[in-house]
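Friendly challenge for the regulars: who can give me the structure tokens for this chain first? No prize, just bragging rights.
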Amino acid sequence: MTTAMPPSPQSLKVPEVMTALRLSRSKVYDLIRSKQLESFTAGRARRIPVESVRRYMQNRIEETD
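First reply, four minutes later:
Bragging rights claimed.
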């Protein structure tokens, strides 16, 4: 019997984004407020699409070039 790997997440919680970007909680919320990171709410939980995190990182890389 084989078990399938769970699918990759399509959205992340704020603490997961904090870990991925090595930023503080307040900085992540600042990025959300300034629209540098897109987000949505699911109930009371804030979620950030993985693609939004990728775009943010790509924009930061391009800014340093």
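The chain has three helices and three strands. Strands lie at 11-13, 40-42, 45-49. Your move, everyone else.
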